[in-house]
Amino acid sequence: MVSRTSPRIVPAAFLPAALAPDQARVTYIGHSTFLIESPRQVRVATDYNDYVKPTVVPDIATMNRAHSTHYTLSPDPGIRHVLHGWRDDGKPAGHDVSYQDVHVRSIATNIRDWAGGTARHGNSIFVIEVGTLCIAHLGHLHHTLTPQQVSEIGRVDVVLVPVDGSYTLDLDGMVEVLQALKAPLMIPMHYFSRYTLDRFLERVKADYEIELAETPTVVLSKTTLPAKPKFLVLPGR
Asked: For the chain, what is the largest distance between any 2 Cα atoms, rounded to a whole number of angstroms?
């Protein structure tokens, strides 16, 4: 299941703190929260919440409202851009924000509500452009993507993908989404135990290479992306 060859992705621990113009630093904080850092030191925190958060205040915080581990109603006042993945009027969030060398936009998806129905546009896939990379955070995705949504997302280099297989999309559906997006690198998130992570990896190991990283942080660029699509498992902090 785990690649034994030399990794194409270089752990950040062996690199200097400064990033080259084509690089991005990605740190898995835990659950669905990542800290993404740009060459100009802009920080983006995904699914920013009150429980699992980075040790630094981000410049941009994205959120989704599936439950309280994906958002907060009391974000740190130092955050420049707080991007909710939903709107109270049920319309798409429609974010399109640029700050220094980072661009963040959102693509709306539906979400199951607590009554068993569907909340239209209740979740957002956030696409973060940083360095030369395009990173998609799928949020709390509950359904496969339409051709229009795939087109709106566009070409992505890295997908941050929920792999629990129950609270979000089922395993076969999530694999279908990943096949549609065709990203070279996928990083699992939103798993509640080693069992749920291993269940997903068992599902995909026949078709994808899998690498288990030793540190939660990785520095990425176009030149370090794998030649064949692979999963990189980052340990949460």
From this structure: 50
Interatomic CA distance for residues 96 and 94, integer angstroms: 7
Contacts of residue 116, defined as CB under 8 A and 6 or more positions apart, other chains included, come to none
| Averaged pLDDT score across all residues of the chain | 89
pTM of the model: 0.90
Task: Take residue 174 and report the two structure tokens written for it.
Answer: 């999530």
Host H or E run for residue 151: helix 147-153
DSSP 174-217: HHHHHHHH--SEEEEE--SSHHHHHHHHHHHTTTSEEEE-SSSE
Provide the CATH number for the domain formed by 12-233 in this structure: 3.60.15.10
Residue with more model confidence, 50 or 167? 50
Q: 228 — phi, psi (to 5°)?
A: -115, 145
The arithmetic mean of pLDDT across residues 41-50, rounded, is 96
The number of beta carbons lying within 10 Å of the beta carbon of residue 8 is 18
pLDDT value of position 114: 61
Rg (CA), the chain: 16
